[in-house]
Design goal:
With about 140 residues, this protein is mostly beta strands. It is about 0% helix and about 50% strand. Strand 1 and strand 2 form a beta hairpin.
Length: about 140
């Protein structure tokens, strides 16, 4: 369900940009299996927020042939720590198993790379739990083109 879709005037080079917010609920994903889905996000999108509601691995490919044409997809692993705290929001941090932060990017930029460039980005989610379940993605992005 698209929550926000509004135009930002006087954006980059005096053009208009759009910021969108979406809550997407997947179909049921079986334990330790992948589910593919597509989201209309614009030709190029800057991810500003990504929150999921469970342990999973999320990938976004920029080409409709997925891994065959996009060897470096956007990836986010959502997990629950041993102490029970959840890491279900992509903050841009890269941590090792001891909790040391080794990297910190602010935003991810995704751009459709199909031969006939379209507005769709190609997502995959792997259920990293013991139970079949749906996943809720809370996304906010800036449509750059």
């Amino acid at each position: 369900m698209l929550l926000q879709d509004f135009q930002i005037l006087n954006g980059y080079q005096s053009g208009a940009a759009y910021r969108r917010e979406l809550v997407h609920v997947t179909d049921v994903v079986q334990p330790y299996t992948w589910l593919d889905f597509e989201l209309d996000m614009g030709r190029t999108a800057m991810i500003q927020k990504l929150i999921v509601d469970g342990d999973c691995l999320l990938k976004c490919y920029t080409h409709h042939e997925r891994a065959a044409k996009d060897e470096n997809p956007y990836m986010f692993r959502a997990y629950t720590k041993r102490n029970g705290t959840n890491v279900w929001a992509d903050t841009g941090q890269t941590q090792d198993s001891m909790g040391t932060v080794w990297g910190n990017r602010r935003y991810s930029i995704l751009s459709n790379s199909d031969e006939n460039v379209g507005r769709v980005l190609y997502w995959s989610v792997r259920n990293d739990t013991e139970d079949a379940r749906k996943f809720k993605l809370d996304l906010q992005w800036l449509v750059m083109e």
